[in-house]
Every structure is written in C-alpha cells, then in structure tokens.
Design brief:
Oligomer: single chain
Number of helices: 6
Strand content: 15-25%
Largest sheet: 5 strands, mixed
Helix content: 40-55%
Amino acid sequence: MTDPHAMLRRSVLLTAGACIAASGVMPLAWAAGAALPAPQSMADELARAIMVGQPLVVMVSLEGCPFCRVARDSYLGPLRRQEGVPVVQIDMRTSTTVRDFNRKAVTHDELARAWAIKVAPTVLFFGPGGKEVAERLVGGYIADFYGAYLDQRMQTARAAIRP
C-alpha cells in the first residue's frame, strides 16, 4: 500500500515542475548547476567530517533528476559552502568507483543499492563507524519545507556525534 502523504507530495511536486516547464522560466537555482564533490573514499570523508565535529552528509542523486538539482543547488551546496558541512554526492546508476566505509572498492550504483536507496534524491547523515545518525531525507518534499527538514536532521546528526 502506498503512503497517501507521499502520493500527495509527489503530485504537488510534479504539478509544480510541469508549471515551471510550461512557463519556460527556469529558477535561478536550477541554472547555477553547482556540483557536489564525488568522494574517493567514504572512510576518509567520514574521518575528515568527524575531525571537524560534523556528520558526513551524502546526497544520493540521479542524473537528470530536477529534484536532485534543487536539493543540491539550493540546500546542500550552500550548506557545504557557507557552513563548511562535509557534503558529498553518490550517483545512482553510475559505474564511478568509490571506496566504501570498509575501504572496499565499489561503484556508486552498488553503494546506493547497498544502502537500499530507491528514490532520488536521498540524503543520508553518517557518524562514527559509518552509522546513520539521523533519519534519511528521501525525495524532493515540498520546497517550502525542505530546508526545515534538512535543518532538523542536521541538528539530530550533530547531536549524535558530539562527545
């Protein structure tokens, strides 16, 4: 059975996307195209994050996904640039290699499948030992609330890694 709230969110987002596409006007944030770094080693990225007292934030993205672009350009990119939060991007369905938290070489797609990611974007928050320390942020949500959901999860993740 499908969650009716998820269906409503999806409907609102699809309608908004269709309206934007029909208008021929692309939001400024979409035009920015700011990329997040692709990690070489999840273990190294996590170690650097913990060293600066932050969780490692991982966005699992899908090429061409408009919701991924909004999450990246409007929320996660600024979080990385303005607040210095370690944020990296894993791309579903790509064969780019990365070392996982156990330093095993895997593709981005294999890593996304190992994490049971089915929806893009999905944002994960990792702490010591490569454990998730906050609820995942799954999907595009309603733009007016995405920042609040992200802030809440960042507070939870930061609290979880404090000594």
